[in-house]
Design goal:
single chain, 487 residues, alpha/beta, five-stranded parallel sheet, four-stranded mixed sheet, 20 helices, 11% strand, 6PGD_dom2
C-alpha cells in the first residue's frame, strides 16, 4: 500500500515530495476532496513546496457526505497517510507520475463535526477552500440570494453548534474565531462558476445574516473571497482505471488520480491571512479574472457539455471518440467560431483562435479517457453557468440561434437516458427531482424548458428561441442527431 513508509523507495520513474510531509503544518482546510481538487489546488501547493517555498501550507481535507462509500474513502486516506499518486498525460501520450504529500489529514464531517470545527478554529488555518460543484452554493437563480429555506440549511440554523453544511461549518468557525480573537481566514471557491468568489461571498454572508447579522457584518468587513478561474480535465477513476494506473506506475495506490498535462489557475490576489507563493508554481495572479472566466466557461466548458450530450445521443462513451466524429468536430468548431468568439471580449494577449485549437486538442486526448456521462453530470447547474452569457448576448443582439438551440435541445434529449442505438444510461442530475428529469420525456417538447437549466436567461427568453429548441428536439427525434446538425 502507498504510505509514508515507502516514500524513500518509490518505483523507478515515480517522483515523490521533495520535502518531508510529516513536518508540514496544515494551513488550509478544503471541503470536497475530489479528483479535480487533488489534481489542481493540491498539485499547485505541492509544486510550491517542491520549489523550496516553505510555510504552514499543508491541507486538511473534509468530506461532507455520509455513507459506506464516504467512510471507505476516509479510511483509505488515513491508511495511506494522506498520500496519493497523480498521473499526468500529455496529448501525445507522454506520462509522468508523482506522489502528492500535501494532504495531511482527512476528516469526515458527519462522523465528527466537532473535529472539523476544531480544525477550522485552529489559528494556523489561513485559507478555507472548496470544490462543492456549480450547484452547491444554494443560490436562488431568480433572486440571486442565498436560500435559507433549504432543509439542511434550516437544520444548521436551528442547531449551529453542530452543523452539517459547508455554510454552517465555515460561519460557526468564523464566529468562534472572532470571539477568541483568532481572526478570519480567506474563503476560496475553486468551482467552475462565473465570479465564484462573489457567489461564495453571497452564500456565506447570506447564511451568516440569517444566523447573526452582526457576525455577517464582521465577515463582510474582514473575510476575503477571491475570484478564480480553474481549469484541468480530470476524469473519474474506476476500478479498471485504478488497476491500469498502478500497473504503469508500480505503486499500490487505492486513490490514484489521472489528469491531462494542461493546467491553469488564474486567481485574484485577495487573501486576508496570507497565502502560499503560488505564483512560483504557475498560478497567474490578476486584479480581475472576469475575462479569463468568460473564455474558459463559454468556450471550453460549454463546448464540453454540448459535445457530451451529442456524443451520448450518438452512442459514444468517451470524449475523445466524440470529438473524433467529423460531424461533431465540425459542429463544435462552428459553435465556438460563430457563436462564442464573435461575442466575447478576451483578456489582452489571449488569442481566441489558438485557445479554440487548444480546446479541441485537449478533447482529443485519448489517454485521459474522460467519459461523456461525467462531462454531462449536473447539467442543470452547468447549463446556467456555461451557456447563460452566450444565450443572453445572442438574444439581445439578434444573433443566429440555430446552433445554440440545437445544443440546448441535445441536452434535453440526453436527459431521456437512451442513445439512438437503443443503449441506455442514467443521467446524473443531483439537483433535479425525478419529476423534473421526466419532463424531458413529456410529449410536449416545450415542457422541459421549465427546468432550472434555463433560468439564467428566462427573463429574456423569446418565442423564437423556444420554437427553435422545440424544432431541434423534433428533428433529433425524427431524423437523428447527424442528419439534423445545423451548419
Amino acid at each position: 500500500m502507498l504510505n509514508k513508509a515507502i516514500l524513500g523507495n518509490l518505483p523507478e520513474g515515480v517522483r515523490g515530495p521533495e520535502y518531508d510531509p510529516a513536518t508540514l503544518t496544515p494551513g488550509i482546510v478544503h471541503f470536497g476532496v475530489g479528483n479535480f481538487f487533488r489534481a489542481h489546488e493540491a498539485w499547485y501547493v505541492e509544486r510550491c513546496l517542491d520549489r523550496g517555498k516553505p510555510g504552514p501550507w499543508g491541507i486538511v481535507g473534509v468530506g461532507l457526505t455520509s455513507g459506506a462509500r464516504s467512510e471507505r474513502k476516509a479510511e483509505t486516506f488515513r491508511a495511506q497517510d494522506g498520500l496519493y499518486s497523480l498521473t499526468e498525460v500529455e496529448a501525445d501520450g507522454t506520462r509522468s507520475v508523482r506522489v502528492i504529500g500535501v494532504l495531511r489529514d482527512y476528516l469526515l464531517a458527519p462522523a465528527d463535526p466537532q473535529a472539523v470545527l476544531a480544525r477550522l478554529c485552529d489559528p494556523a488555518i489561513r485559507i478555507v477552500s472548496m470544490t462543492i460543484t456549480e450547484g452547491g452554493y444554494n443560490i436562488d437563480e431568480e433572486t440571486g440570494e442565498f436560500r435559507i429555506d433549504n432543509p439542511r440549511v434550516e437544520a444548521d440554523l436551528a442547531n449551529p453548534q453542530a452543523p452539517a453544511t459547508v455554510f454552517g461549518f465555515v460561519v460557526e468557525a468564523l464566529r468562534r474565531r472572532r470571539a477568541a480573537g483568532t481572526g478570519p481566514f480567506t474563503v476560496m471557491s475553486c468551482d467552475n462558476l462565473r465570479h465564484n468568489g462573489q457567489v461564495a461571498r453571497t452564500a456565506f454572508v447570506g447564511y451568516a445574516r440569517a444566523y447573526d447579522p452582526d457576525l455577517a457584518q464582521w465577515i463582510e468587513a474582514n473575510v476575503t473571497f477571491p475570484c478564480s478561474m480553474v481549469d484541468r480535465i480530470t476524469p473519474s477513476v474506476d476500478g479498471a482505471m485504478r488497476d491500469m494506473l498502478n500497473r504503469e506506475s508500480g505503486l499500490d495506490d487505492a486513490l490514484p488520480v489521472l489528469a491531462e498535462g494542461f493546467s491553469q489557475w488564474v486567481l485574484e490576489d485577495s487573501f486576508c491571512a496570507g497565502r502560499p507563493a503560488l505564483e512560483t508554481a504557475g498560478v497567474q495572479f490578476v486584479s480581475d479574472v472576469t475575462g479569463y472566466e468568460q473564455v474558459k466557461v463559454r468556450m471550453l466548458n460549454a463546448a464540453h457539455v454540448t459535445l457530451g450530450a451529442l456524443g451520448l445521443l450518438l452512442g459514444y462513451r468517451y470524449v475523445h471518440d466524440a470529438i473524433a466524429d467529423a460531424d461533431l468536430h465540425r459542429f463544435i468548431n462552428a459553435y465556438l467560431q460563430k457563436d462564442v468568439m464573435t461575442q466575447i471580449h478576451a483578456p489582452q494577449g489571449l488569442d481566441l483562435d489558438a485557445y479554440r485549437r487548444q480546446v479541441i486538442s485537449r478533447f482529443s486526448n485519448r489517454a485521459v479517457a474522460d467519459t461523456l456521462l461525467r462531462i454531462c453530470s449536473d447539467g442543470a447547474s452547468k447549463s446556467q453557468v456555461f451557456w447563460t452569457d452566450t444565450v443572453r448576448r445572442s438574444l439581445q443582439s439578434g444573433h443566429d440561434l440555430s446552433r445554440i438551440a440545437f445544443g440546448l435541445a441535445a441536452y434535453l434529449e440526453m436527459l431521456r437516458g437512451s442513445s439512438e442505438k437503443g443503449e441506455t444510461y442514467t443521467p446524473l442530475e443531483p439537483t433535479l427531482t425525478e419529476g423534473q428529469v421526466a419532463l424531458a420525456r413529456d410529449p410536449d417538447f416545450a415542457a422541459a424548458l421549465a427546468l432550472p437549466a434555463f433560468d439564467g436567461w428566462r427573463d429574456v427568453q423569446t418565442p423564437e428561441l423556444t420554437q427553435a429548441i422545440v424544432a431541434a428536439r423534433r428533428a433529433i427525434r425524427e431524423h437523428g442527431v447527424r442528419a439534423s446538425l445545423p451548419d
